[in-house]
Every structure is written in structure tokens, then in C-alpha cells.
Amino acid sequence: MHGLHQDFLSSNRLLFLIILDCNDMTKRTDGF
User: pTM, whole model, 2 decimals?
Assistant: First the structure.
């Protein structure tokens, strides 16, 4: 169970980073 929880947290973090990256890109294109 602990291992599964760790996987969930790491995948969530990865998803969060991807979302942040996408937001960053849209902000950049909006700025120009």
C-alpha cells in the first residue's frame, strides 16, 4: 500500500509539473 501511495504522489507531481508547463506556454503565447 505504501508503495502504491508513493507512485500516486510521484505521478501526481509529474502531472502537476506538466500542467504548470502548459500554463507557462499559454501565458508566453498570450504575452506576445
Answer: 0.52
